[in-house]
Design brief:
Length: 120
């Protein structure tokens, strides 16, 4: 009932920038938390950044000062602006959205993932 479409991944040189987007659609009444996670080969999925409906943000220590999460509530979209990228940022990035449906039930959905590769 909720679909998430991610875009913006790709290949970039170290020091470069990328902007990820994740747009939600479906029978959504409201969205609470939106976030970005990443999973590198052989590693567990980890939280990169999150933003609440009130605009409070939370970042992994490894990306503080380099990544910025934001959201456009009218477009049901969350963004991740990534700057000063490092090879260790290489991973598949997933968005996660939590909220409530028109039917009143809570939901939590994952995007399909977008590959980010940073070359040295």
């Amino acid at each position: 009932q909720v679909q998430l479409v991610e875009s913006g991944g790709g290949l970039v040189q170290a020091g470069g920038s990328l902007r990820l987007s994740c747009a939600a659609s479906g029978s959504i009444f409201s969205i609470n938390d939106m976030g970005w996670y990443r999973q590198a080969p052989g590693k567990q999925r980890e939280l990169v950044a999150a933003i609440t409906d009130g605009g409070s943000t939370n970042y992994a220590d490894s990306v503080k000062g380099r990544f910025t999460i934001s959201r456009d509530n009218a477009k049901l979209t969350v963004y991740l602006q990534m700057s000063s990228l490092k090879p260790e940022d290489t991973a598949v990035y997933y968005c996660n959205v939590r909220g409530s449906l028109l039917a009143g039930m809570l939901f939590g959905s994952w995007g399909q993932g977008t590959q980010v590769t940073v070359s040295s």
